[in-house]
Specification:
Blueprint (H helix, E strand, L loop, with lengths): L1 E3 L9 E3 L1 H13 L8 E8 L5 E8 L7 E5 L2 E5 L1 H7 L2 E7 L4 E6 L5 E2 L6 E2 L1
Parallel strand pairs: 1-5, 2-7, 3-6
Antiparallel strand pairs: 3-4, 5-6, 7-8, 9-10
Protein backbone atom coordinates (compact mmCIF):
# COMPACT_ATOMS: atom_id res chain seq x y z
CA UNK A 1 0.00 0.00 0.00
CA UNK A 2 1.34 3.44 -0.82
CA UNK A 3 0.56 6.50 1.25
CA UNK A 4 0.85 10.20 0.49
CA UNK A 5 1.00 12.75 3.28
CA UNK A 6 -0.60 16.17 3.53
CA UNK A 7 2.83 17.69 2.95
CA UNK A 8 3.10 15.96 -0.45
CA UNK A 9 4.35 17.73 -3.55
CA UNK A 10 2.48 19.05 -6.57
CA UNK A 11 2.13 15.53 -8.03
CA UNK A 12 -0.61 14.64 -5.54
CA UNK A 13 -3.13 12.08 -6.63
CA UNK A 14 -6.20 13.73 -5.09
CA UNK A 15 -6.69 16.95 -3.20
CA UNK A 16 -9.61 17.32 -0.79
CA UNK A 17 -11.13 20.62 0.24
CA UNK A 18 -11.68 21.25 3.95
CA UNK A 19 -15.46 21.25 3.32
CA UNK A 20 -15.38 17.82 1.67
CA UNK A 21 -13.20 16.35 4.41
CA UNK A 22 -15.42 17.76 7.15
CA UNK A 23 -18.61 16.41 5.57
CA UNK A 24 -17.12 12.97 4.87
CA UNK A 25 -15.71 12.66 8.40
CA UNK A 26 -19.06 13.67 9.91
CA UNK A 27 -20.87 11.06 7.80
CA UNK A 28 -18.37 8.38 8.77
CA UNK A 29 -18.74 9.17 12.46
CA UNK A 30 -22.54 9.01 12.16
CA UNK A 31 -22.10 5.53 10.66
CA UNK A 32 -19.95 4.53 13.65
CA UNK A 33 -16.80 4.11 11.55
CA UNK A 34 -13.27 4.48 12.91
CA UNK A 35 -11.99 7.51 11.00
CA UNK A 36 -8.39 6.65 11.91
CA UNK A 37 -8.55 3.38 9.93
CA UNK A 38 -11.48 3.75 7.55
CA UNK A 39 -11.84 6.19 4.73
CA UNK A 40 -13.62 7.39 1.64
CA UNK A 41 -13.06 5.27 -1.45
CA UNK A 42 -13.02 7.32 -4.65
CA UNK A 43 -13.18 5.26 -7.82
CA UNK A 44 -14.02 5.35 -11.50
CA UNK A 45 -16.47 2.92 -13.06
CA UNK A 46 -17.92 2.26 -16.51
CA UNK A 47 -21.23 3.99 -16.99
CA UNK A 48 -23.09 7.07 -18.04
CA UNK A 49 -23.56 8.51 -21.48
CA UNK A 50 -19.95 9.77 -21.66
CA UNK A 51 -18.48 6.38 -20.73
CA UNK A 52 -17.10 6.76 -17.17
CA UNK A 53 -18.52 7.92 -13.86
CA UNK A 54 -17.25 8.49 -10.34
CA UNK A 55 -18.16 6.31 -7.43
CA UNK A 56 -17.70 6.91 -3.72
CA UNK A 57 -18.28 4.78 -0.67
CA UNK A 58 -16.91 4.39 2.82
CA UNK A 59 -14.59 1.45 3.51
CA UNK A 60 -13.44 0.17 6.88
CA UNK A 61 -9.86 -0.15 5.64
CA UNK A 62 -7.84 0.15 2.42
CA UNK A 63 -7.14 -2.73 0.06
CA UNK A 64 -3.53 -3.90 -0.20
CA UNK A 65 -2.86 -2.21 -3.57
CA UNK A 66 -4.67 1.08 -2.79
CA UNK A 67 -3.00 4.44 -2.64
CA UNK A 68 -4.04 6.09 0.62
CA UNK A 69 -4.13 9.88 0.56
CA UNK A 70 -4.66 11.77 3.81
CA UNK A 71 -6.07 15.28 3.60
CA UNK A 72 -7.55 17.29 6.49
CA UNK A 73 -7.72 14.10 8.62
CA UNK A 74 -9.72 12.25 5.93
CA UNK A 75 -8.23 9.11 4.41
CA UNK A 76 -9.05 8.66 0.71
CA UNK A 77 -8.54 5.21 -0.85
CA UNK A 78 -7.84 4.99 -4.59
CA UNK A 79 -7.38 1.69 -6.45
CA UNK A 80 -4.68 1.45 -9.15
CA UNK A 81 -7.12 1.36 -12.09
CA UNK A 82 -8.94 4.49 -10.92
CA UNK A 83 -5.68 6.32 -10.19
CA UNK A 84 -4.99 6.58 -13.92
CA UNK A 85 -8.20 8.57 -14.41
CA UNK A 86 -8.33 10.82 -11.33
CA UNK A 87 -4.75 11.94 -10.75
CA UNK A 88 -4.68 15.65 -9.95
CA UNK A 89 -8.39 15.81 -9.11
CA UNK A 90 -9.95 17.87 -6.35
CA UNK A 91 -12.80 16.47 -4.24
CA UNK A 92 -15.12 19.22 -3.01
CA UNK A 93 -18.43 19.40 -1.19
CA UNK A 94 -21.00 21.88 -2.45
CA UNK A 95 -24.25 22.92 -0.89
CA UNK A 96 -26.65 25.34 -2.47
CA UNK A 97 -30.19 25.96 -3.51
CA UNK A 98 -30.19 23.50 -6.41
CA UNK A 99 -27.72 20.84 -5.35
CA UNK A 100 -25.81 19.45 -2.43
CA UNK A 101 -23.12 16.81 -2.48
CA UNK A 102 -19.61 15.80 -3.33
CA UNK A 103 -18.12 16.94 -6.62
CA UNK A 104 -14.88 15.92 -8.39
CA UNK A 105 -12.96 18.52 -10.38
CA UNK A 106 -10.83 16.41 -12.70
CA UNK A 107 -8.17 18.03 -14.95
CA UNK A 108 -8.02 14.86 -17.08
CA UNK A 109 -11.59 15.17 -18.40
CA UNK A 110 -11.90 16.06 -22.08
CA UNK A 111 -15.71 15.94 -22.18
CA UNK A 112 -18.67 15.46 -19.87
CA UNK A 113 -22.25 14.52 -20.50
CA UNK A 114 -24.88 17.24 -20.34
CA UNK A 115 -25.91 16.43 -16.78
CA UNK A 116 -22.31 16.24 -15.54
CA UNK A 117 -22.68 12.73 -14.14
CA UNK A 118 -20.24 11.00 -16.50
CA UNK A 119 -17.05 11.92 -18.33
CA UNK A 120 -14.44 10.89 -20.87
CA UNK A 121 -10.66 11.29 -20.59
Amino acid sequence: MSTESVEGTSDRMVEVTPEAASEALALMEREGMDVDVGGLRLFVQQGGCAGLSYGMRFDDEPEEDDTVVERHDLRVFVDPASADYIGGSVLDYESGLQAEGFHVENPNVVSECGCGESFRT
